[in-house]
Amino acid sequence: MTTKREVVNGANAPFQSKPLSPVIGAEITGLDLSSPLPPEIISALRTAWLEHQLLLFRAQDLTEEQQIRFAEKFGSPVGGRNKNKISARRDQDPRIMLITNIRKEGKTIGSLPDGELQFHSDSAFLDCPLMGTLLYGVELPSTGGNTLFANTYLAYDALSPAQKKALASLEAINVYDYATQVRTGRLDRAQSPHATHPVIRTHPETGRKGIYVNRLMTEEIVDFPTEQGDPLLAELFDLIERRDFMYEHVWQKGDLLMWDNRCTQHARTDFPENETRLLRRVGLEGDKPW
Questions:
Q1: pLDDT tens digits in sequence order for the chain, 290 residues long
Q2: Contact (CB, 8 A) for 51 and 5
Q3: Contact (CB, 8 A) for 212 and 260
Q4: Do 155 and 90 touch, CB atoms closer than 8 A?
Q5: Which residues contact residue 51 at a Cβ distance below 8 angstroms, ignoring those fewer than 6 apart?
Q6: Given this model, what pLDDT does residue 92 score?
Q7: ∠ CA 35-38-40, rounded to 5°
Q8: CA angle 131, 65, 18 (to 5 degrees)
Q9: CA gyration radius for the chain?
Q10: N or C: more exposed end of the chain, with fewer CB within 10 A?
Q11: What is the largest CA-CA distance in the chain?
Q12: What's the pLDDT at 91?
C-alpha cells in the first residue's frame, strides 16, 4: 500500500524519498543542489518539506552562493547575529551564519561554538521567527555534535482535549542573549531580545497545531505566577522532548538539512572540544506566530 510518505517515489518521480524515522524527516536522493532546479521539482520538494517537516540531502558539494540560491526557492534568506564573534572573511555573505568552534584571535568566527545546545526553535525570541533553516555540514568532529529533531505536532496531538483547551489562549515570553546554550536561569530582558508568542502555534500552510514553547528560550507564561507557570512549562518541555517524537541526525560531510521551525524543535549533543565542527546556516524569514 502506497503511503503519503512515499508519494514522490517511482520511476517517473523527480527524486526519491525515504523516511528518516517513523515520526519526522525524509531523506531526498537523486538531486544535485549545486545546479538550478526546475519549478516543478521545487514545488514537489516544498510539498515533501511540509509533509515531513525535515528534509535531508546527502553528499552535496555546495558553495555559499549555491546554498543561498537553493534557499531562495523557499523563502527570503537571512543570516544571524553573534555580538561576540569576528568575521572569518570580509567578503562573507551576511545571509550566511557559521555554526562553529573555530576561533581567531581568541574569538569564535561563528555562533554556538561548543558543547551541548538545548532544544529550541530558531529565533523564537523575535517577533517574526525564522520560518525555516538550511544547515550544511562542512567539517565535523569524529563523534558527537549530532542534531536532535522533535515533532511538535505529535507533542500537541498527545495532549488531552482538556489540556488543549486550557493551553489554547495562553502566551509565553521567549528570551535569548545570542550566547546561552544551556539555560540555567532567567536572562536580563533589558539586554536580551524577547518576544511573546502563543503556547500553541497554528502552522499557516498546513493548518496543524503544535506546541510552541522551548527549553532554551521560553521563560514564562504570560499572567501566570511562577509557581504555576514553571511546572507547566517543564511538563511541556518534557512532552516535546520525548524520544518517540524525535529523530537524531548523525552528520556526514556534505549533508544539507532543511527544517520547518514552525512545527519542529532541535538540539545538539556534546562533542570533543578539541575537534573542529563547522556548519553553514541560512535562515528563511518568517511571519508572526498565531
A1: 233 444 455 556 689 999 999 999 999 999 999 999 999 999 999 999 999 999 999 999 999 999 999 999 999 999 875 544 445 455 679 999 999 999 998 888 999 889 999 999 999 999 999 999 999 999 999 999 999 999 999 999 999 999 999 999 999 999 999 889 999 999 999 999 999 999 999 999 999 999 999 999 999 999 999 999 999 999 999 999 999 999 999 999 999 999 999 999 999 999 999 999 999 999 999 999 99
A2: yes
A3: no
A4: no
A5: 4, 5, 7, 26
A6: 78
A7: 140
A8: 55
A9: 19
A10: N
A11: 58
A12: 63
Distance (Å, whole) CA 233 – CA 37 = 42
Q: Are 93 and 68 in contact (CB under 8 A)?
A: yes
Q: Grid coordinates representing 101?
A: 568552534
What pLDDT, on a 0 to 100 scale, did the predictor assign at position 108?
87
Residues in the chain, overall count: 290
* Residue 284 near residue 132, CB atoms below 8 Å: yes
- DSSP string for residues in 10-43: STT-SSEEEESSSSS-EEEES--TTS---HHHHH
d(CA 82, CA 103): 13
What are the sequence ranges of the domains in the chain? 4-114+130-141+250-265+272-284
Nearest to 258 by CA among 43, 57, 34, 5: 57
Rounded CA-CA distance 26/54 in Å is: 6
CATH assignment of 4-114+130-141+250-265+272-284, among 3.60.20.10, 3.60.130.10, 3.40.50.360, 3.40.50.2020: 3.60.130.10
Please give the Cα distance from 125 to 176 (Å, whole number). Answer: 6
What whole-number distance in Å separates Cα of residue 205 and Cα of residue 19?
21
